[in-house]
Amino acid sequence: MEQKENEKSMDSDSETMLKKVYEKSIDPASQTILLKAKQEGVETAWDRYEKQLPQCSFGQLGVCCRNCNMGPCRIDPFGEGAEKGICGATADIIVARNLLRTIAAGAAAHSDHARDAVLAFKKMSEGAAGSYAIKDEAKLLSLASEYGIPTEGKNREKVASELADALLLEFGKQTGSLLCTMRAPEPRLKLWTELGIVPRGIDREIVECMHRTHMGVDNNATHILLQGLRTGLSDGWGGSMIATDVQDILFGTPQPRMSTVNLGVLSRDKVNVIVHGHEPILSEMIVEAAEDSELLKLAQEKGAAGINVAGICCTGNETLMRHGTPIAGTFLQQELAVITGAVEAMVVDVQCVMPSLGELSGCYHTKFISTSPKADFPNTVRMEFHEEKAYETAKEIIRVAVENFPFRNPEKVNIPREKQECMVGFSAEAILNALGGSPDPLIEAIKSGAVWGVGAVVGCNNVKIKHNYGHVNLVKELIKNNVLVVTTGCNAIACAEAGLLVPEASELAGEGLKAVCKALGIPPVLHMGSCVDISRILVLSSVLANRLGMDISDLPVAGAAPEWMSEKAVSIGAYVVSSGVFTVLGTVPPVLGSQAVTALLTRDLNNVVGASFAVEPDPFKAAALMLEHIDGKRKSLGLNSDR
Amino acid sequence: MKDLIIRPERCLGCRSCEIACAVAHSKSKSLFSALGEQPAPKKRIYVDCSPNLEISIPITCRHCEDAPCVSVCPTKALSQDEVTSIVSHNPDRCVDCWTCSMVCPRFLPLYRLIRVIGCWTSSMAYNRGVISRQTDAGVKCDLCQGRDIPACVEACPTHALVFYELEEIPGTKLPETTSELTG
Ligand code: SF4
Ligand code: SF4
Ligand code: SF4
User: Fold this and answer.
1) Interface predicted TM-score of the whole assembly (ipTM), two decimals
2) How many domains does chain B have?
3) Domain span at B78
4) How many CB atoms lie within 10 A of CB A614?
5) Is residue B6 within 8 angstroms of chain A, CB to CB?
6) Do B163 and B5 contact (CB within 8 A), yes or no?
7) To which H or E segment does residue B132 belong?
8) Which of A32, A226, A239, B38 could form a disulfide with A416 if both were Cys (CB 3.0 to 4.6 A apart)?
9) Which of B12, B23, B31, B60 is the best mutation test for A, with the most CBs of A within 10 A?
10) How far apart are the C-alpha atoms of A111 and A103, rounded to whole Å?
C-alpha cells in the first residue's frame, strides 16, 4: 500500500516535471535535455528565472535612476509616492535616459566587434596576421571605390591597408557623417539630415549618449530619444555594416549551402567543440584547425572518430553561413549543449555568453575556454586569442578539447536525436544572384501579390517567452500569408530547428510565395546571417527602395523581434525603425513607466521617421499587426491590398 | 491563522511590496495594464524610513475585527468603526505608551528589534502614521483576498515580509503579558 502510494507520487512528480519542461520550450531536443537537467539536479536559466520572480516593478517600468549618487531614485508609478528624482527628473526623463544608455550599450557591442574585425583586417593587410587572407577580392575593390580609395597599380594588400585605415577613421570621425549612410535611399538620408540624426563618428555617438545621460545634461525625453535614433543608426549603418563588409572580405561573402542544426548535431564518437559568442575572427580559425591533420591524428589516438565543430549564437551563424558548419542551438540552448554531457570544449568570445557556463561545465567534463581579451568568466580555461597567432591558438584550443575526449563519461551522455537540415547563406548578394542579378523579379512578385511583402524577423531568446515559440509561430504565420521572411541571429536558428529553412518548407507557405520559392529553389525563410548582418537587410531594402525610387518606409515591409532580450536588440530596434521599418517587439521594453516615451515609440515616431514600434508577446497577434501594416503599405502603393 | 509578519531588519527599502500591493488591488491585476487605470490602484503597505533606527520599515495594518490594539489602548486614542472595522488613531489622546504595538503580531519583530537596539526614541510614529493614512484613504490590508500568498510577501526579494502561522516562526508567539515582552 505504502509502496503504491510512493509510486503514485513519483509518477505525478515526473508528470509535473514533464509538464514543466514542455512549458519551457517547443523544441523536442531542448525538452529532452531540460528533463535531463532536472534529473541531474543542474540549474538552467529557467530555474534562475523562477527564483527572480516576481521581478522588480520599477525596473520593468524603467523608472529607477542610478545616474548620480544622490540617488538611487525611483518614481511611484501609481502617483502616491515620489513623482520626481532628487534632481527633479520626472519619469519621462528617467525612462528616456535609461533607454538611451541601453541603446548606447547595444551599439557599443556591435561597433566594438566591428572595430576588432577592422583591426584584424588591418593586421592581415600588413602581413602581421598570417592566418587571415583576402577571400572576397571583388568586395574589397567595390568597398575601396565606395571609400574613394584609388586601386590602380596597387596590390590587394595595399588596397586593404588603405581601406582599413579609412574604416578605422569612421570610428573616431569628428566631422562629416558616416559613409555607409550614403547607401540609404535618398529620401531617407534627406529625412535624417532634416532631423539632425545622421550619425557622425561611431564612437562619438556612444560617448555622447553617456554624456547626455550624466546627471544634469539632457533632460528632454524627445531630445534624448533623437540621440537614441542617431546612435542606433551609427550601429546599423555604421558598426554593424562595417563588420559585415570586412568579415565578407576576410572570410568570403556567404552563398547558399546546406547544413544541419540543433543539439543532435553533436557527435557520439567525435570530439565536440562548440564555438559560442559573436566574432568569426575566432570561429573561422577553430573551424580550420579542426581539420588539421596533426590534431585529427591526435583525436584518433584518443579514441575519437574525428573532430566536430558546432556553433551557438552568432559566432555559429558566421561559420554556418560561410562553411555550413552545423549549429547546436540558440541562445537558450547554450547550457543545454553542456548538459548533453558530450561537449569536450565550449569555446567562447564575446556577447550573450552566460556566466553560468563556468559552474555548469564543472558538473560535466566540459572545458569552458574563454578567448577574448575583453571577456573573462568564472571557472574558465583562459586561452587569449590574438590575431598575430590566431591559427596557433586555435590549434591549442582544439588540442585541449581533443585531450579532454577520454574524460567524457558515457553514462552522462544524452545527445537528442533532433538534427534538422537547413539551407543558409543568403547574403544580399546571394539573394540578388538567386533572383538573376536584379531585384526586379522580387519587385514584380510583390506587385502581383504573389509575395505579399517582406518580414524581417530577428533577435534572441528570452526566458519570458517559451523557447522558440514566439519565433517559429510568428514566422509560420507570415509565410502562410505569403510574406517572404528574411531572418538573422537566433530567430534564424530557431526557424532552422523548426524545419523552416529548407526549400520544402514552401509547402507551409501561401500559394503565391510557394510558387516563387519553388521556381527559385529557395526556402520561404532566408537566413541572412548573424545579428550584425541585419545590415544586409538594410542594404537589401535600400536596393529595393532605390529601384522603385522610393523610401524604405514606403515598402510593404515589417520587422519583428519576438523573443528579444539583449541591449543590442534595442539598438537594432532603434536603427530599424529609424530606417523606416515598423517593428513589433515580443517582450516589453522597460519604458512603460513614462506615458510620453511610450506614446513616442509606439505612435509619434510615425510622424518623425515614418515607422514606429508595437509590443505584442503573442506571435499570432504580432503577425497580424505586421500583416495589417503590410496591407496598408500595399494600399498606399496602389497595389492589391485585399488578402 | 496566518498573518503577515514584518521583519524590518531585512527590509532594503526597495518598495517592491508597495507596487505589488497596488497591482494586487487594481482592476487588471497586471503591472503594465494597471498603469493607466482610473482611479489609480491604492497600496495598503507603506515603506517608511526610520532615521533613528537607520532602517526602512514596511508598515501595513489589517484593521482586524475586534482589533486588539483598540481594546488595550488605555486612553482610547485608538477606536474602531463598528461597520467598516476601520481603526483610527487620535494623536491628541495618545500618550506614547506602546501598549497597542505590543499586542499587534505584525509589529512584534519590530519591537523586539527596537528592544535589542534600545532605540526607544524611534517612537511609534510609523505604524500610527500608516493607520492614519489608511484611514484617510479608506483602505486596509485585506491580506490579498483571493490569493494564496499576499502580493507583498511574494514581491519582497529579501523576505522581510512573511506569511506564517504565528507559531511557525520561533520566538514570535505572542507574549502573554506586557512584562513578558519588555523583559
Ligand atoms: S540623476 Fe536625478 S534621478 Fe538620477 S539618481 Fe541622481 S538625483 Fe536621482
Ligand atoms: S497582504 Fe496584500 S493587502 Fe496586505 S499589505 Fe500585503 S499586498 Fe497589501
Ligand atoms: S519589498 Fe521587502 S525589502 Fe522591499 S521595501 Fe518592501 S519589505 Fe522592504
Assistant:
1) 0.71
2) 1
3) 2-169
4) 19
5) no
6) yes
7) helix B125-137
8) A32
9) B31
10) 12
